[in-house]
Known about the structure:
By secondary structure, this protein is mainly α. Helix content is about 75%, strand content about 5%. The N and C termini lie far apart (about 95 Å).
Amino acid sequence: MTKSNNSKAPVINVFKWKGINRKGAKISGEIQGSSLAEVKVELRKQGVNVTKIQKKAKPLFSFVDKIVPMDIAVISRQIATMLSAGVPLVQSLELIAKSNEKPSLRILMTKIAIDVSSGTPMSQTLRQHPKYFDALYCDLVGAGEQSGALDTIYDRISIYKEKSEQLKSKIKKAMFYPAAVLAVAGVVTLLLLLFVIPQFKDIFEGFGAELPTFTLFVLDISDFVQAYWYLVFASVFAVVFAFKKAHLKSQKVRDITDKFILKIPIISTILNKAAVARFTRTLSTTFAAGIPLVDALISAGGASGNYVYRTAIANIRSEVMAGMQMNVAMKSTYIFPDMVSQMVMIGEESGDLDGMLSKVADIYEQQVDDAVDALTSLLEPMIMVVLGVVVGGLIVAMYLPIFQLGTVVG
């Protein structure tokens, strides 16, 4: 076992090949292997007379081949399905590696299959790839290996990952739409201030009359933007860059940000419901996998995704360790809705805590979905009003002098 852990895993590459099969037909494809000689031997075993073979170049843009969380959710479901059908684990991993369209994922799954086939436990192998498999994922797989019910555990993992990614997608949808529209509005406003309004200024200089205050205000803004547009862009970029760097390096900044976003009107409702959904879904999955409640609460706290909830869940864990029932500890935090603590109480009394937590997660995931749809419907008219006020205000400011001139002439 120790030897397997210390040995360096071979570098897996993807090769493109062309050749002729036993029937004389020209064929081509892709194959994985650690060396050119190895893949040639493998192709000859398949009855292919290779005419051309070369290592496949990596994509020009790294994000094209990047492994995303949804990829992990998909392969988790594939593993769960094959294990349930009685396919051995190593064979399942090899089939997934060969059939996947994304080269980086094929390489990852091939490495995992090689390690598992050499005798390394699946959970231990996955811990070598923390970028794709977090501690919770590995703990669940480890629990499945110990209990001998890896197929059942993988079914729970796949449900958990699918629900988790769906929830993230809904939250991103709620954030992306208004941000995209407001960004477009900002660009349009900037173009008007830089290129359109200066044309009106040249016309107004020939009027020889005093301009309205509102028009003068807009012209001053236009002059400022033309003179210092690079400073505006640099300031915005510097603020965004500084915040992202501070958010990445400072736990305090992340904690303050987590507290702040839970106070944003409308958005906070979605984020609170999402945190509850993540907490209950994670706790249900880990507890059902046989992980002790005290340990499961650690994973659930991290999965909640917010400092306020992590702190509250840490307090719940301390109270549970002291012998308090979880529903009572949840009430003392004054963060979780009464319905959640009541459902937990019923689950504890009936001995079906994981099932009750799963139902709570279903309820709150549906509420997040409904809240996102409601937010989108609410934001559409609000954004139109904002766009109308900003763009319409600029246009009115430019036409006010013309209207006044018409009145004087009349």
